[in-house]
């Protein structure tokens, strides 16, 4: 492996979220296989997840990690520590609510969501999952929410405004309400 490829791979942090053992009954006994759910991120706003299946655990983890690196998304962060706004996401029966938090709050979230936030680089967030505790659906619902997070710069450019004008309008509506 060349040096720059190793450096690019070493910048990512990966977290094993879940391993599932499945058995196939065949003549003469059972054949076991393993499925792994892995979250990979650079702790600077990029994160991805992957699902790998194989006959051995290390091979399943390797496949999941490769898939996660291929399917990374970029999430805009406020002050490199939290989200810009509150958001909800869903996948199947899994529903998640992600709320931006003040400095010092920490990561208040369940296991699969915590892995996503730690690899993403979020330090302060409050998250709640309802509907299911299935780690696959929780991770997918979290990614559904994260894909819909907008930065003030993106909203301002979509509306044809400057960020300062957008914040001024936000202040006007807060005073009126």
UniProtKB/TrEMBL annotation:
Keywords, ordered alphabetically: Ribonucleoprotein, Ribosomal protein, RNA-binding, rRNA-binding
InterPro entries (alphabetical): Ribosomal_Su5_D2-typ_SF, Ribosomal_uS5, Ribosomal_uS5_bac-type, Ribosomal_uS5_C, Ribosomal_uS5_N, Ribosomal_uS5_N_CS, Ribsml_uS5_D2-typ_fold_subgr
Signal peptide region: none
One Gene Ontology biological process: ribosome biogenesis
The S5 DRBM domain, residue ranges: 12-75
An annotated Gene Ontology molecular function: rRNA binding
Gene Ontology annotations for the cellular component aspect, listed alphabetically: cytoplasm; small ribosomal subunit
Pfam family, one: Ribosomal_S5_C
Keyword ATP-binding annotated: no
Superkingdom: Bacteria
Annotated domain remarks: The N-terminal domain interacts with the head of the 30S subunit; the C-terminal domain interacts with the body and contacts protein S4. The interaction surface between S4 and S5 is involved in control of translational fidelity.
Protein family according to the UniProt entry: Belongs to the universal ribosomal protein uS5 family.
Functional note: Located at the back of the 30S subunit body where it stabilizes the conformation of the head with respect to the body.
HAMAP family: Ribosomal_uS5_B (MF_01307_B)
Quaternary structure note: Part of the 30S ribosomal subunit. Contacts proteins S4 and S8.
Name of the protein this chain belongs to: Small ribosomal subunit protein uS5
Encoding gene, per UniProt annotation: rpsE
